Amino acid sequence: MLIQKLNACTEFIAGDGTILRELLHPDKQPLKLRYSLAYAVVPIGQTSTPHSLTTSEVYYILSGQGEMHIDDELQIVEPGDAIYIPPLARQFIRNSGIEPLVFICIVDPAWRQQDETIYSKV
Fold first, then answer.
1. Would you say residue 79 has pLDDT above 90?
2. Which of 33, 54, 69, 75 qualifies as a cystine partner to 26, CB 3.0-4.6 A?
3. Residue 96's domain spans which residues?
4. Cis omega before residue 109 (within 30°)?
């Protein structure tokens, strides 16, 4: 059994500028997973850098409020929302609330740096 504690995961700034902690990744734990699972935070008033992945991604909003941008679409997101991001979609999320925007990211297949393209800031 593997139980990964959030506080035991190293916090770092991801390529898109979000504060990230990788909870599960097949390259970091001896697990037979296709996907990776991370905990992300966008501080108040901040926006992640536009980026795309060659893989699909899902965000699940835990707390805060934001604006999710996928290609030319914009939707307000809040706790309890699951957002599907298709492969190669240009995406970013803006914290439009009064508290940190916190969400879980699932990338399938698992996130790899070579699968990500970072674009210039919004």
1. yes
2. 33
3. 6-110
4. yes
Residue 25 falls within a domain, yes or no? yes
- Kindly indicate the confidence band of residue 122, based on its pLDDT and cuts at 50, 70 and 90: low
N residues, the chain: 122
Encoded tokens for 111: 């996130």
pLDDT level of residue 120 (50, 70, 90 thresholds): confident
How do beta strands 36-42 and 19-24 pair? antiparallel
pLDDT, tens digit, 9 for 90 and up, residues 16-43: 999 999 999 999 888 899 999 999 999 9
In a domain, 119, yes or no: no
Asked if residue 122 is part of any domain, the answer here is: no
Give how many domains the chain has, as a whole number: 1
Non-local CB neighbours of 1 within 8 Å, separated by 6+ positions: none
35-58 in b/e form (b: 16+ CB < 10 A) is bbbbbbbbeeebbbebbbbebbbb
Three-state secondary structure call for residue 55: coil
Please, what's the largest Cα pairwise distance for the chain? 42
CATH of the domain at 72: 2.60.120.10
